Amino acid sequence: MNALSQTTTSGTKAVKAAVLLIFALLLFAPFLFQDVRALEVAARVCVFIVLVASYDLLIGYTGIVSFAHTMFFGFGAYGAAISLKQMGPGWDAVLVGALAGMAVSLIVAVAIGLLSLRVKAIFFAMITLATASVALVLASQLSDFTGGEDGITYRAPALFKTATKLMLDENGKVLRIFGVKINGKLAAYYFVFFTCLALFVMMLRMVGSPLGTVLKAIRENEARAEAIGYRVVSYRTFVFCIAALVASLAGTIYAIWLKYTGPDTALSFAIMIDILLMVVIGGMGTMWGAVIGATMLVLAQYYLRDLMGAAAKATVDIPVLPHVLDPDRWLFWLGIIFILLVYFFPKGIAGTVMAKGAPR
Amino acid sequence: MSLLTLNGMKTNIGQYAVLHDVTLDVPEGGVFVLLGRNGAGKTTTLRSIMGLWQPSPGSVLFKGQDITAMHTADIARLDIAFVPENMGVFGGLTVEENLILATAKGRFDPARLKRIYELFPALETFWTKQAWSLSGGQKQMLAVARAIIEPRALILIDEPTKGLAPAIVDAMADAFREIAQNTTILLVEQNFEFAKSLGRDMAVIDDGRIAHSGTMADFAADTALQDRLLSLSA
Amino acid sequence: MQQINDFAGRLGGVYLLPVVVAALAFVMIGAPSSWVTLTVAGLAMGMMIFLMASGLSLVFGLMDVLNFGHSAFVSFGAFIAASVLAWLSGWLEADAVSLNIAALFLAFGAAILFGLVAGWFFETVIVKPVYKDHLRQILITMGALIVAEQMILAIWGGTPVSVPRPEFLEGSLLIGDITIEIYRIFAFLLGLGVYAALYLTLNRTRIGLLIRAGVENREMVEALGFRVDRLFVAVFMLGSALAALGGAMWAGYETLITPALGAEMMIVVFIVVIIGGLGSIQGTLLGAIMVGLMANYIGYLAPKLALASNMILMVAILLWRPNGLKPAVK
C-alpha cells in the first residue's frame, strides 16, 4: 500500500507487524496448535478476514452501509452446499456451486444497486436489511431445497477427507511432520488458507490502486467527486458487486470446510452483527483492521466464553457476579463493548494505532 | 456607537478556511452594506455572527456583549433577526404560521401587522396559504416580514434581491428604507445599484478579508475603487 | 395519463391507495364476510404498526437521526405491559369492566412511562454524542438494540410469555355471518385516537408548529430563537413512548410474545417508514395501513407470498415514489 493520503507513522508499522504475526500464526497453525478445535478457529479466522475485508471495502472505503452482506455469504455457502449434496463430492460440484453462488449474488447485488439509484442513500441501509431478512425467511421456507432450519450436510471432495493420506512414510502409514498428519484435513486447511490469502491480497491491491483513491474521494465528499467527473453511482454499484462476489466466495470456501451449511452458519443476523463488530473493533477503512478485528473476535467467541463460564462457576458464592459472568450474557457484554468502541474509538484498533506515533 | 463589532474573525468550514481576518464595526441605525464578489465570504460572515458557524479565533461583540460562543437560539433572543440567502421560509406552513413563529408570545401586535400588510400586500392576500405556493418575490417578502414582525435591534439580510424582478426590487428597497428608520440593518449584497441606494456605511470583503470600509457616499463616487474590488468593469 | 393523475389527485391522491387495495381485495376474495374480517384485522394491525413507526419517522424527519434501536422500545413496551397485566390478572378476570379498564390503563401507562424515561436516557446517552454522523448512529443504535434484546432475555427469559387479556376485550362480535374480534376494534379505535391527538398537537399547538417547521429547516428554527436540541429530546421521548404503546398493544393482540419481537417488528417498521415517507405522520399512517391490509389480504389469498409481500410492496412504491408516499415538505 503506497501512502496515498496516509502518512506512514510508526503506528502503521506496529499494525503491519501485528498483521504479519497473525499471518504467520495462521500459516503454521496446524503445526503450532495440535488440537482439532484450534484448527477450526484458524479456518474460521481466515474466512472471516476475507468476509470482513470485503465489508470494509463497502463501509470503510466507500462509506456504504449495507446489512445484506451476510446474505451474499449465504448465497455462496448454500450454492456449494446444494451442489455438493446434489452432484456428489467432486470438484465439478465445487465449481458449479461457487459459480452459482456468485451468479445469484451478482444479480441481487445489481438489483439492489439499481434500486439505490432511485432512493436516498439513507433508505439504502434499510432496504438491505429488509432484503436480507427476506432471504433468511426464504431459506427456512424452501426447506426441500435448502434443508430449512436444519441445514444441509454433505461431503467435501475426496482430497479433503481426513482419511486421505497425502504422503506416506516407510510403513505405508500417513506421514507425520512435527507430529502433524499430512492428510486430507491438512489439505483442506491449506485450501482455505491460500484461497483466503489470494482474495485478501486481491482486495489489498484494489484499494491500493487508483480505484481505491476514487473510492476514498467518494466517501469523503460525494458531491465533489461527482463534480470532478466520477460517476459516483457507477462506482458504488461496482464496489457493491465486487464486495458481494468476494463474500459469496468466502461462503463457498467456508461451506467446503465445514461440510455443513445452515441458517445459523451462513445467513443469520448474528453473523452480520459479528461482521459489524469485527470491522468496528478492527478499524474501518484500513484492510488491516479486518485482520485484527476478525482474529480478536473469533478468538474471543471461542475462548472468552469458556473463560466466562469458568469465572461464573468460580464466583458462584458471590452475589450478582455469577449472573453477570454467565456465558449466556456474552452477547450483552459484546453489545456494551461495541457501543463503547463506536463512541470512544470510532477508528477501531488499527485506525487508532495507525494515527498515533511519529510521522515518518 | 458601535452596535456590532467583529474582531479578527476566522471561520473554517470543514477543512476550508473561508474567513481569514474579518474586522469591522457596524454603527447603530441605518443600513450597513457588506459588498463583495461571489465566494468572498459574505454569507459566511453573517452565519458566523449568527452562530451557525463557529468563528475561531476572533470575536463578535453585540452592544458590548461577547456573543462569539453563544448558541444561535440565544443570539436570536438578543433581538437579532436573520434573513438567509435561501429565505428559510417554511413551505409546509401557512404565511400566518411562518410569521407567528417569529413572535415571542404567539400573538401579533395589530399595529405592526398592519404595517407589514402595507409594506407587503401579497402577504395579506396569501395569509392562509401554505408558503410553498408563493412566488420567489413573495417568499422574500415573507422572510423579511418575519424579521420585523416584532422589534429587533439588528437585522442580518443576505442577498435579498437575488433572482427578483426589478419592480419587486424597488418595492424591497422602499421597505428597507422605512425599516431602517427604526433599527439597524446589516445587508449583504452583490447588486451594487440596490446597495448604493440604501447604504450609509459599507465595507467590501474579498477573499475572507475586509478590503475596504468607509461611507457609501465616498465609495459610490470612486469608480476606480469599485472596479478593483467588485470587478464592475464598464 | 395526466387526466387520471389529476382525477386521482382531486379524490385524495395517495390516500386513495388503501381504498384501491381494499376494493381489489374485495373482488379477489369474493366472500364479503371474509373480506370484512380481513379488512378489520388489517386496519387494526396497521394502527398498531403506525404507533410503533410514527416515532421513527418524526425523529428522522426532525433530527436526521437514524435510530436502528427504535424497536427496542417496542419490545420493552410489550414485555412490561405483559408483566403488569399478569400481575393484575385478578382485575382482568373480574366482571367489573372498570377493573378491567383500570388494569389495561395501568399496563399501557407503564409502557408509555417506560418509553418516556428510556427515550430520554437513550437520546442523551446514545444518540446525542453521534448527532452528525450517520454511520456511527446506525452502528451505535444497532449496538443498543442488541443490548436491549439481551436485557429482555435476561429479565424475562427465553420462553414465550403469554399475555392475559381483559374479559371485556375477549371474544368476537357477530354481525350476520361476519366475525370481528373485539380486540381488533379496540386497537383500531385507540390507534385512531392517538393519531387524532398527534395530528391536533402538530397542527394546533405552538410546539407542533415548531416540530413541523423543524422537520423542514432546523437551522431557521434556531435562528428564530428556539433551542432545537431541547425539541429533539421531547420528540425522541414522545416517539419512544408511542413505540412502547404500540408494543404493549401488539402484546395484547398476539397474546404470546418472545424477545425476538423487537427484531421482527424492526423490519416492518422500517418498511412502513420507507413506504410512507419520512417526517410526516400522515405518511406513516398511510404506510402502516397499506402494510397491515396487504399482510392480511395476501396471507389469505397467497400464503406463500405473505412474508415477501412487504418487500414487494416497498419496491413497487419506491419505483413509483422514490421518497415515499407522503414525505414531509422539505
TrEMBL record, chain C:
It is a multi-pass membrane protein. It holds the Pfam family BPD_transp_2. Keywords: Amino-acid transport, Cell membrane, Membrane, Transmembrane, Transmembrane helix, Transport. GO terms for cellular component: plasma membrane. It comes from the Bacteria. One of its GO terms (molecular function) is transmembrane transporter activity. The keyword Plastid does not apply. One of its GO terms (biological process) is amino acid transport. It is found in: Cell membrane. The keyword Transport applies. Belongs to the binding-protein-dependent transport system permease family. LivHM subfamily. PANTHER family: ABC TRANSPORTER ATP-BINDING PROTEIN, BRANCHED-CHAIN AMINO ACID TRANSPORT SYSTEM PERMEASE PROTEIN LIVH. This is Amino acid/amide ABC transporter membrane protein 1 (HAAT family).
